[in-house]
Amino acid sequence: MHVRAPTKDGDIEVGKRDDVGMMVTRGRIAAPKRLIARIGRGAVFGILSVALLGVGGLQAADKPLLAFAARIAGDDARTRIVIDFDEKPEFSVHYVAAPERVVVDLPATAFGFPDEDLAARGLFNDIRFGAMDETSARLVLTAKRPVQLSLAEVQEGENGEFRLVLDAEMATAEAFQKLVQGQEWEGSAAAADESLAAVDDDAFVVAIDAGHGGIDTGAIGTTTQTPEKSITLSFAKLLAEELGGEAGIDAVLTRDDDVFLSLSERVTLARQAKADLFISLHADTLSQKDIRGATVYTLSDRASDRMAENLAARENLSDQIAGIRLKDEPPEVADILLDLTRRETQAFSVTLAQNVLSSFEGQVGLINNAHRHAGFQVLRAPDIPSVLLELGFLSNADDEKLLLDEAWRKKVSRLLVDAVGRYKNMAVANGG
């Protein structure tokens, strides 16, 4: 019998099934058991287990691989993805539930093809690719329904290039669940880098978190197509420099390069640095393109408004975008002291937000009701006053222009330094 499949498009060929239901691709039978031999050893369902951030051990990363071309074809029954590399890539595959995703881990890779060449279609409604850290990269395929890979292999071309071929086909919910359960995941532990270890024990430490990064691009500028991750990193470095020039203040960065950090890693890094404040920088988009200006958010289990709720939901998807398996969180510890610490921390977070807005007043455009709150995962440090600062909206052309303006960024960073300084003086005066 035949199954609807990709039509021929370069190396993307029509897939067929023989009379016993095995998929025939390029003249070879590619049943799930053959997938075991190709991409996994030992796992019942053929899925190689690696650490989330431990892919660097698969292949030396003196220089990144180059993925110079990609293509996708298919329908809601079967979809093929082909990515061309300059060198042979080692890879591993995982399945992640809620939603159903196929995660392909690679060594450090430079993606040299346009994003639109891997625009989601067929079985997939979202496709992301990018760096995870300095030694690894990741491809995340978010599916419309349960899927499985019937073929995942590297093929050598006639001119010395290599192509990674992924054939995905629809699967039952039961089959997908078996794939998820038949693999082991190791959690990634955040390790403080040298910049975090070098802080002065007597200094007032400010952790600056450049939102997004690596595979998680964040929002995209409407006019210039600049990714949010680049804007936040540029501003974070400038702010750290400005804060570092102040007596008694040390600034640390959660990331200083285009790498992915999970939300929990960002919080962990700040705590490892013994930060006194945590500022997470963002520049989101809204469907209402006329809305512009800065916003300061603090943590709350209940959102102040629908916009804050929606923004928090999008920001909390960062781990999902990167293909991280979300484990069930343990129940809250019934500890009154911890609860009191959190309440005190939340109060200080509000004070910090008020100081920021006071500095911005009349100097930086603000949205209406510029102090808002919602359940941002990145603000959940129980012992560090934390705010999330939306510098502006990339969906607004005027805001986008300002976000890319060096003089404006310098001005805003100085105002933030003033806000942090006033907060620090208050904290010191109160014995903090």
Would you mind describing this structure in some detail?
The protein is of the alpha/beta class. The longest helix is centred in the last third of the chain and has 25 residues, at 336-360. A hairpin with a 3-residue loop joins strand 4 (65-74) and strand 5. It has helices at residues 32-39, 173-181, 194-197, 228-244, 263-272, 306-315, 318-321, 336-360, 397-403, 406-429; strands at 16-17, 23-25, 28-29, 65-74, 78-85, 92-96, 101-107, 109-111, 124-133, 136-143, 147-156, 162-170, 204-210, 249-253, 277-282, 294-299, 366-374, 386-390. The protein is elongated and about 70 Å long. It has ten helices and 18 strands. A six-stranded mixed β-sheet has the order 14-13-15-18-16-17, with helices on both faces.
The helix-strand sequence is EEEHEEEEEEEEEHHEHEHEEHHHEEHH
Helical run tally = 10
Query: Structural class of the secondary structure composition?
Result: alpha/beta
Arrangement of strands in the largest sheet? 14-13-15-18-16-17
Integer-rounded radius of gyration: 24 Å
Please identify the top-level CATH class of the largest domain: Alpha Beta
In the CATH hierarchy, the third-tier topology of the largest domain is known as: Aminopeptidase
Tally of distinct domains: 2
Q: Which CATH architecture of the largest domain?
A: 3-Layer(aba) Sandwich
Poorly predicted segments = 1-10, 12-61, 187-198, 328-334
Distance between the termini: 74 Å
Shape: elongated
Beta-strand share of residues: 25-35%
**Number of E strands:** 18
**In which range does the helix fraction lie?**
25-40%
- Whole-number average pLDDT? 82
User: Biggest β-sheet: count, sense, barrel?
Assistant: 6 strands, mixed
Assembly type of the chains comes to single chain
CATH superfamily of the largest domain: Zn-dependent exopeptidases
